[in-house]
Design goal:
- It contains four helices and nine strands.
- The chain is of the alpha+beta class and 209 residues long.
- Strands 1, 2, 3, 4, 5 and 6 form a six-stranded antiparallel β-sheet that branches. Strands 7-8-9 form a three-stranded antiparallel β-sheet.
- The termini are far apart.
Length: 209
């Protein structure tokens, strides 16, 4: 993938294109700061208006919080019809690596919970929501501060996840509907399930839509 958008000339590719649940992504280096970045390519499905992706990216650009992997730049490639955006990468330490220790140390757990909720509040204050918060979207910095990442640009049902995918365990009931549009309340639901799993080492009793 290449683009003539001058705003993206500061991003230098460092890895191969990879397919993910929200589109295609690639590791880049932000030459203006020296820091890493992820470039996401977002194909718009037929049933999801292009302007909604544009509006969501515009609002998420305003989110600046240490617990959120911020979006650094957005663009649109006319040749391919793809929206794309560069964002800070998630924390270098995966959530799974520290999950058990969080359950054993209530001080660390409280810090984690506060950072996740404060990050969500920053997203919500910008008029947005995450929409698919689950452990795979969480990470930690080297200082063990929590980071939220992985914003889907389209509703979860349109991504056609498999029914047995673990991510469904954290999805709020309203996201199981056909429209599946997220909300701030859905983010709080997902965070609650994650906190419950850390504390009690199991998921709450599951329901099926």
């Amino acid at each position: 993938f290449a683009t003539s958008d001058s705003a993206f000339m500061r991003f230098s590719p460092e890895g191969a294109l990879q397919d993910g649940p929200f589109g295609t992504f690639r590791m880049f280096r932000d030459t203006s700061t020296g820091g890493p970045a992820l470039l996401h390519l977002v194909p718009a499905p037929p049933r999801w208006p292009e302007e909604k992706i544009q509006e969501r990216l515009h609002r998420l650009l305003r989110v600046r919080h240490f617990s959120v992997s911020g979006i650094l730049q957005k663009g649109f490639d006319k040749a391919s019809g793809l929206h794309f955006f560069a964002m800070e990468p998630p924390g270098t330490i995966p959530f799974a690596k520290l999950k058990d220790s969080l359950g054993q140390d209530r001080g660390s757990l409280l810090k984690f919970m506060l950072q996740i909720l404060e990050g969500l509040k920053a997203i919500h204050d910008a008029g947005e929501f995450h929409g698919n918060l689950n452990p795979s979207q969480l990470g930690f910095t080297e200082e063990e501060d929590a980071k939220i990442s992985g914003f889907p640009m389209i509703p979860v049902p349109l991504m056609k996840p498999e029914p047995n995918e673990a991510a469904w365990n954290y999805v709020a009931p309203e996201l199981h509907t056909e429209s599946g549009e997220g909300s701030t309340a859905a983010d709080v639901f997902s965070a609650g399930v994650i906190f419950w799993e850390i504390l009690f080492k199991e998921l709450p009793e599951q329901w099926k839509p």
